[in-house]
Amino acid sequence: xxxxxxxxxxxxxxxxxxLKVERKxxxxxxxxxxxxxxxxxxxxxxxxxxxxxxxxxxVETCISGxxxxxxxxxxxxxxxxxxxxxxxxxxxxxxKRALSLAEGWLLDHSKEAKTYEGRPVNLASPQVHSEWLKxxxxxxxxxxxxxxxxxxxxxxxxxxAYGVTFEEHDICPRKPGFxxxxxxxxxxxxxxxxxxxxxxxxxxHEWKSEWTVGGFxxxxxxxxxxxxxxxxxxANNQIASAKIVGLDTEVSLLWQPQIEMLRAGMSPxxxxxxx
Length: 275
Hints:
Layout lengths: L1 H56 L10 H4 L4 E3 H14 L2 H13 L18 H10 L21 H5 L29 H17 L6 E3 H9 L1 H9 L20 H8 L4 H5 L3
């Protein structure tokens, strides 16, 4: 009899645990759906900002086949952005190609990142940090030979903001539109969009803090698409440490006030923390 009671007690505990796990999985799934919906709303917001700017200046905000901003920038993103990208790229039939490019970038022994000391824990070493800064100024692996972006529909917010919610006349070669000059491009003032983005990040962090961790977009995309192989590469020290730096602070420029702070000589750390 005691053995039977012990067995029954075990079964009861097992099913309670099973129900708890299933309930948590349903909650996580529901939160994931809401997070992806929110990401699409943010993308809509940047599209509207871009259209408003084009209507104002009377010219396209981006030159097709240019690719200058992509030649000197491997963008940063957050994990939830990469999860959303996997979903969209799968539907477009581009996922296999995108993961192949991301994998190639990760395994490439680039001259900018020569340190292989595993995944940085807490603060990266000065050498890894220096290599990380250099990598940010290298060509994005998703820029194709025709100067078109393979993942344009799911590009990170840092790419969407460029030339829309902040101006970069000293880099962008597009011709000036109405009300612009060679040394001053217009941009869309976006206080409401900025507040919405900040609320979104706060909500994602509350749901699952990992979703708001940032990293190089190719790294996060490959990790989201093939986590098993990604972990194997990291465990075998096959990826340069600078390529797998993860940050829980914002490092991307999205808004014009940030540009003005940089030009005024403010510390980059303070600039990127602007909300």
